Amino acid sequence: MSGTVLFAREFLRSPLRTASLIPSSARLVERLVATVPERGEPVVVELGPGTGPATEAIQRKLAGRGRHIAVELNETLATHLVQRFPRTEIVTGSAWDLPNILADRGVYTADVVVSSLPWSAFAGPHGHTLVPKIASVLSESGVYTQFAYTFARWAPPSRHRHAQLRQSFEEVVAGRTVYRNLPPALVYSARRPRVPAGQPLSPAVRAMNLMAS
Question: For position 174, which CATH number holds?
């Protein structure tokens, strides 16, 4: 089964978890993974890889360097990824549990977090803690990239997610719309986490985490 067909099937089974009928376009993926270093031994964490368009691009940029940990909630898609990318550490789990997932693998600081998670992952009783958790695992120079569909950019949920990014990162930049993606999308790049890895979370964030646990 091709990745596109598999992705569409999983979308039809659970639209809220997959959130798109087709995988991201090559142009969108190029912008999403642009922050992956081309030198050194970086730790790259990928959230919501789906069938792997960004996974493939990250592997190509790493060329055997560093570590690449991909966290996928959908078990069927995770199995597909294991078969396609034997050099990537595929984890079947929730991004909401990101700090524990990394700690279990001896990783406490990430250089890049690349996310294809739907905005719905950032809602609900657990979702509001997700952005602070991502910020908490990044190094001081770390970068978090997240794509979003342009048509929903000004909707209240998207504005709320953007506010969360501003609260957890000192710099948040929205890229240009990629019209060759279906639907058109853009990439947010967030830098300088307000809670870099290795530092304690604020009391407010700790309280939110306890509420979500």
Answer: 3.40.50.150
